[in-house]
Every structure is written in structure tokens, then in C-alpha cells.
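[Discussion] Sanity-checking designs against the backbone

I'm trying to build intuition for which residues belong where. Below is a C-alpha cell string of 263 positions. I'd appreciate it if someone posts a full sequence so I can compare it with mine line by line.
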């Protein structure tokens, strides 16, 4: 027969067991939430992106949007000629993501992961506002009194120019060879040259300062842009999240509005 004291001890013991069980459940919930939070934070932190100069405007926009969509993340860009960026990465420069203006430069990166082609780009002739020299096509760029800027052959825009001029059967003698497309375009903006072969996207971004002349041979020199998370990435989860954002519907919208074409 149970006494009052026995009942008291039994109730007290049950209370202790219930409290312990609830605490344990609470601990599991906290751990689960912590794991979930950690999972969401795994895409955060600093993300370093090396990207072709022609991606400057669109990637800057996407970087800001990415940071808003991933609280706690910060995106740092290094824009430049794809060949120079590939060299920097191979020499140990810290980067999580590489976006190249040509597959060749991506292939040159020894620790590139699995690349995905995300856009294409093609050349136009950039001339001063109002086209003062009356340029209509590549043949006009062979005129001896016309100053022309091209990208160096090692740079994707230079390789594309070489392909396009070969298709047109013309030889252009540039007064300067630049290491990225932005530098070639700057020569036109500053009036240092009369024309330059640049990407359609760069011409569109600078439409207030220059005019763009389309030419049919550019279709033979389309550049595919691959993007990849590097094997040496310090923040691979953040890098993959950024790549996923570039490939998303919003990323596609921004890139299309900038003048890039679907791969």
C-alpha cells in the first residue's frame, strides 16, 4: 500500500524525468536549429570572384543582389583580362570562383572545378559618338588614316577579333594592343583611337559615350563564357551559391539585359 510520502517521492521523481526529457528535447531543437542556421550560413561569408572585364557591370549588379539574398555574405571582385586572371590563379592568388570570357582560359587554370557555360558574347566596332569617320564594317578599319585599338591575341576579345578579321579576309594594323576589352574601349572614349573591336555588352554599357557598329563576321567569333568554383576555394559553399545565383532566372535576366546571349 502506497503511503503519502511514497506518493510524494513518486510525483517528484516523475517531475524530474519530465523536466529532463523536455530539456533534452529542447537541446535537440536547438542543435537542429543551429545546424539549420549553420547550413544557411555556409553560403555566407566572403566570396572572391575573378571575372572577365566584360562582366564588370552585370556581375557588380549580381554581386549586390547576391549579398541581399544571402545575409552575412560579401562578394569581392577582381575584374581583368581572362588570360591574366588565369595566370594569377595558377600563381596562387586566392579566389573562390572564376568566370572567363573563353573556355581556353578556363582550361588553363589547373585547379578549376567543373565549368558551366552561362552566356555568349560577340564583337562590335566601337566608334566615337556620331561615327565621325563613317565606319560601316571591318574593311574600313584597314584604312591607313584610321587609328584602331584591338585586344592582344592572348585575351579572348583579341582572339575573337583575329577570327573575325580572318573570316572577313582583312588585315587590321592596330596602333595599340590592350590587355582587356575595357582598356580598348577606353581608347575610343578618350579619342585616342577612331575605332576598336569590343564586345557588344561593353558597347551597350557605354552607349552614352560611343556608337556601336554591327558587322556580320562577328557571328563567326562568338565567345562562350564558362564559370566554375575553384578546387582551392576557401569558401566553396559560398562560391557555389554565387555560381547558382548567376545561373538562376534572376542572373539570366541581368545578363540578358546587359546584352549577353544564351549559351
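Best answer:
Here's mine. Compare freely.
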Amino acid at each position: 500500500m502506497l503511503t503519502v510520502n511514497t506518493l510524494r517521492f513518486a510525483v517528484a521523481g516523475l517531475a524530474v524525468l519530465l523536466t529532463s526529457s523536455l530539456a533534452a528535447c529542447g537541446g535537440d531543437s536547438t542543435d537542429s536549429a543551429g545546424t539549420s542556421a549553420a547550413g544557411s550560413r555556409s553560403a555566407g561569408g566572403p566570396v572572391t570572384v575573378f571575372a572577365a572585364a566584360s562582366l564588370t557591370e552585370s556581375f557588380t549588379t549580381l554581386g549586390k543582389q547576391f549579398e541581399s539574398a544571402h545575409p552575412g555574405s560579401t562578394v569581392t571582385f577582381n575584374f581583368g583580362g581572362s588570360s591574366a586572371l588565369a595566370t594569377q590563379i595558377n600563381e596562387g592568388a586566392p579566389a573562390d570562383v572564376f568566370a572567363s570570357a573563353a573556355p581556353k582560359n578556363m582550361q588553363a587554370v589547373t585547379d578549376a572545378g567543373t565549368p558551366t557555360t552561362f552566356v555568349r558574347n560577340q564583337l562590335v566596332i566601337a566608334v566615337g559618338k556620331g561615327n565621325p569617320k563613317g565606319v560601316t564594317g571591318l574593311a574600313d578599319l584597314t584604312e591607313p588614316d584610321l587609328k584602331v585599338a584591338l585586344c592582344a591575341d592572348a585575351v579572348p576579345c583579341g582572339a575573337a577579333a583575329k577570327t573575325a578579321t580572318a573570316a572577313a579576309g582583312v588585315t587590321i594594323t592596330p596602333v595599340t594592343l590592350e590587355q582587356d576589352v575595357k582598356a580598348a574601349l577606353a581608347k575610343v572614349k578618350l579619342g585616342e583611337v577612331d575605332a576598336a573591336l569590343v564586345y557588344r555588352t561593353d558597347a551597350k554599357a557605354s552607349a552614352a559615350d560611343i556608337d556601336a557598329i554591327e558587322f556580320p563576321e562577328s557571328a563567326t567569333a562568338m565567345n562562350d563564357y564558362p564559370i566554375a568554383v575553384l578546387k582551392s576555394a576557401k569558401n566553396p559553399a559560398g562560391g557555389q551559391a554565387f555560381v547558382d545565383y548567376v545561373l538562376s532566372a534572376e542572373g539570366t535576366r541581368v545578363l540578358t539585359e546587359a546584352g549577353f546571349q544564351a549559351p
